[in-house]
Design brief:
By secondary structure, the chain is an alpha+beta fold. Helix content is 20%, strand content 33%. The protein is built from two helices and nine strands; from the N terminus they run αβββββββαββ. It has a five-stranded mixed sheet, with no helix packed on it. It has a four-stranded antiparallel sheet with strand order 1-4-7-6, with no helix packed on it.
Length: 147
């Protein structure tokens, strides 16, 4: 074989390997796992008039610790899911930890001082199962009204 033949064979094999990698990367994920049966926030205080879960977070979220850990549950453990979290306030950020089943919510000092009420929605895009919780700060017992 000549040098041109060997270079041509190497060139064709490189092109074929690039095509295989491109096709492999665009394949959908394995969806043989069952969908989730339930998705909910388990740690809440009570339900409001609309039946939504409420959690008072004044004791956990302060100026010195502006992060709240919101625990959620889903099952079964070996299920296929695509979780999406949305917050009612775009100024508050979050990070989702699927391994520990936590949503870390980062409050700014301004939001803590304003005692911002936050609605957190978690949804599974595959099954459309969803749960909603309202996080709120307890207001001071004494209200001073100026004359």
């Amino acid at each position: 074989m000549t040098k041109k033949g060997i270079i041509f064979i190497i060139f064709i094999s490189i092109i074929i390997s690039i095509m295989i990698i491109a096709v492999w990367g665009t394949l959908p994920e394995n969806t043989n796992l069952p969908p989730i049966d339930y998705l909910n926030f388990s740690n809440y205080d009570d339900l409001n008039e609309a039946g939504e879960k409420r959690k008072e977070i004044s004791k956990e979220v302060k100026d010195s610790s502006p992060v709240y850990e919101l625990v959620f549950e889903y099952g079964p453990e070996d299920s296929y899911f695509e979780l999406v979290v949305s917050l009612s306030n775009p100024d508050i950020t979050y990070q989702i930890d699927l391994y520990n089943k936590l949503i870390l919510i980062y409050y700014s000092l301004e939001n803590i001082k304003q005692k911002t009420i936050l609605t957190v929605t978690i949804t599974d895009k595959r099954t459309q199962k969803t749960d909603i919780i309202n996080l709120w700060f307890k207001f001071d017992d004494v209200i001073i009204i100026p004359d």
